[in-house]
Amino acid sequence: MQAYKFGKSVTLAGWSRGYEPKDAYFVIEENKKRGLHTLVFLDIKEGKCMEAKEAVELLEETERRKKKGVIASETQMVAISSLGRKEQKISFGEIEKLKKAELGKSPSILIFPAKLHFLEEEWLNYFKL
Predict the structure, then answer these.
(1) What is the largest CA-CA distance in the chain?
(2) Is the pTM of this model over 0.85?
(3) What is the DSSP letter of 6?
(4) For residue 36, which phi and psi values (nearest 5 degrees)?
(5) Extents of the domains making up the chain
(6) What CATH homologous superfamily does 3-127 map to?
(7) What is the 3-state secondary structure (H, E, C) of 53-120?
(8) pLDDT score recorded for residue 78
């Protein structure tokens, strides 16, 4: 993906009792408005890495509460796990499809693409679910 089309990056922190940060949701929203991709790093807490499916569930829960249309079942996303390792996995598609897929083991990152350049789309289609 083209580096100049990335906006602000953000870490999606895991939720716990009394701690439900929504920063990632608002960064995705702002980048989306500006036509920029969003790189989302997933939290690592006590040696345990957040998996992509958990991250999507947190973002969907935030959407249910905020109702701003940032995250929907047809929202496209890239999930990358174990980057640089033999078991590296890259998946691209709508959130609904990604939630049902085996996305690989952690650590993971998510990318919420803005409008894709045809070359970006061509490359991502190699990983489409």
Answers:
(1) 43
(2) yes
(3) B
(4) -115, 150
(5) 3-127
(6) Tetrapyrrole methylase, C-terminal domain (3.30.950.10)
(7) HHHHHHHHHHHHHHCCCCCCCCCEEEEEECCCCCCCEEEEEEHHHHHHCCCCCCCEEEEECCCCCHHH
(8) 93
For residue 6 the two structure tokens come to 């990335």
Strand, coil or helix: 52: helix
- Residue 113 identity (one-letter amino acid): P
Q: Which two tokens stand for residue 25?
A: 């949701």
Tokens at 15, concatenated: 């939720």
Task: Write phi, then psi, for 99 (nearest 5 degrees).
Answer: -65, -30
In order along its 129 residues, the chain shows pLDDT tens digits of: 888 899 999 999 988 888 888 899 999 999 999 999 999 999 888 878 888 888 899 999 999 999 999 999 889 999 998 877 888 888 999 988 888 877 766 778 999 999 999 999 999 999 998
